[in-house]
């Protein structure tokens, strides 16, 4: 059970100290002043029009609608920004209208608030953006329901709140600011990450690789059908290239799988190829980031050719080198536009290489025209996609024969119009339903968070109404904004929000008391505050809370002295709401520490499927599924990302697990993570050498894969239940393979030995201490018996 934990007072003090320091930290972040000004203008336009043609109450409601919409557009989401703005304002408008209808009946409103808060908590199962926007709407709704004076007025307020979102969406459409900029940055970071990996491999063949940029680039590749039609040409094929470069680079550099010795002409040639590939990838990343043409130095292109004196590499290293040369040519072809080649020397000059009608460029290796399966890597394309591409290639050929226009390199694999599909908001409904069903179990952190938010919001509202201040809704408002599904973010936000709100209220309250500005000046000060909040949103919770506190004080100042004079009371109510949120997490937690073994087992299961999929390609080359390896790799990355998030959150928790299962110590967790990273890396090395479908089956690979599958399944169960992990059958299959293998051993066999070593390291890391002690005692007893 999750509550079966032990927390020492010193551990709590240390955890609170660390989270408080994190909550008050000001982070370095790239600022987007133009986008911040656009969002602030949206709030200003709505407030100004409402003041001119309506009442101050309507101005405040419309301002909150535009404010909430602007907040939604700044979230880390790949969904179109206008859609986020409209969805946020529509949700707030509906919440305000329904809330006003029931606010006169306290218990009915509390039930509605509890239901709304529960759904907002469950929205985290869809994604962080949905959770943040839903929580913010609940908080703002607690203010806006008190502004109308009648049912018709509530309808007017809801309409103006929705209009605020329409204004923000309209400004985004009319004044686009780098509409594809974030996607360009994500793709360029992935390419630059692979380039950096190539450079590090020159000096360290075992250099680690962080897959996070590739994961982020894949997330950025999800687009709606409308976005797919408008997507810039450079965002079409480079992500697949970055994915395909990584195993080839690692295989080329590895002295065991690649076979190139660490010293000698072969290693020098490997370093030259790695450096040239890094240069091409960096140039591609720079072109994608800036939206300009690819510019390559001629020295890199000279290296990426087979030397005139003959090949230097041999065996697997030669195959990896040839594949690397082909990949760098794909990177050039993916540009689908003239490529600038610079030539150094005293008289530097630039030449342009333009693809001809067959997709070839002079000075580059010849490429096969029309359809090529290289986009999907060595595991091949989907059969349906291949058939569609062949039909499109035939259509292009007919068009060219009829005298129509022909795009350079048309029909090339990297010119495919395929994309990762992002569901529309209507299509997101079944996704949300499935997410809710998936999280409806007691061990789910999302469900426990939803229950926590629902209870705290309801109790906070009742507690705020019972206190003397007239605007006690600040208690549940703060609690709903602070609560997050994990311990560290909840306590960081609690401390940061309290300190930031205190400073923001103090500064804005002092200005209001000394200057006594009228409605228009108060509105102007509110717009300035929200502009700074949009600008500094990603610098930390404390800075954001300062601007938010000042914004709300100035905005309520539009209503008169009865509202802004509550600013100092708000500081106390905000502190009470933050304390209530943090106390609720301590009483009803969702600790990540007891989930470590489950997350590690999930990662092992996913990595094991990846290794088995690659090994099956050698065991049965003609029967492997086209997407089997790719899907297994994606599952491995997702499981690793989940493990790392759980581990980071567990390290911030002030508890240690005391249950029937042995906990994972920090050292054991680190060793297990290193072993699984090595397991994934060894599989990736072998992926770069997948055989053709016509290749003969390898009996050793058949035996090894057959032994590995049940062993991985048994090991995942053993890790979850804190039992020793055994790899005896895997060792037996590896021994038989060595006995049957020819000399030199095949690359699959050498990789299988690396896989087995990594599995042994994992077994040693996760073995419970008492089991390890019994095993050592058993070996010691056996040694004494042999001696006697």
TrEMBL record:
Membrane spanning residue stretches: 83-101, 107-125, 155-177, 494-514, 542-559, 571-591
Domain of life: Bacteria
Segments forming domain Integral membrane bound transporter: 461-583
Localization terms from the record: Cell membrane
Comp. bias (Basic and acidic residues): 771-788
Entry-linked Pfam families: FUSC-like (PF12805), FUSC_2 (PF13515)
Topology class, membrane: Multi-pass membrane protein
InterPro entries, per the entry: Memb_transporter_dom, YccS_N
Domain Integral membrane protein YccS N-terminal intervals: 91-198
Keywords: Cell membrane, Membrane, Transmembrane, Transmembrane helix
Keyword Membrane (UniProt): yes
This protein's GO CC annotations: plasma membrane
Region (Disordered), start-end ranges: 363-385, 650-670, 766-788
Membership in a protein family: Belongs to the YccS/YhfK family.
Protein name: FUSC family protein
